[in-house]
What does this fold into?
Amino acid sequence: MAKQFPQLNDHHVRFIAGQHLFFTASAAPVGHVNVSPRSTDMFRVLSDTAVMYLDRTGSSNETAAHLKADGRLTIMFCAVDGPPLIMRLYGKGRVIHREDPEFAARLAQHFNDQAPLGARQMVHLDIDMVQTSCGYGVPLFDYREERPQMDAWARSKGPDGIEQYWREKNQVSLDGLPTGLFGEDE
It folds into this structure.
């Protein structure tokens, strides 16, 4: 039932645009595999072989550490309403840090120069394969709204509190790998 494609096509791009949720999966050569859910409001299709998302603060920074160590990244979308479909984007990822001029350029081009409080970095994926599968086993759900807690948490911390949180919680992975969040070990 699975089909592979060398790049995104128009149907894939329309499917992505209709989703509210995606998952990232990453791993270093050794240690824990990480899977994280994310909202598509910060996701952008750049071309038929590249996508990115603006990464907001989380309880850890596993994806960044894994990309620094290995580079492999899979992004998965699955339809929870409408016709069933699962789509995975496989490839090599990289992190674009806030101090990098590329961050500012992409923020201007793809986010109207506006980053939500707590935006920590961007994640870019160069796609080497797109795979779709039936999605028959994915349950149906109804989307209600985005959760307000992320923005409320960021407002309560403020910019200085968020940076302190990053320094305490986001510089090293579960397995002790550096994330490069503040340019260390680059």
Observations:
- The chain has one domain: 3-136+148-169.
- The first strand starts at residue 3 and ends at 5.
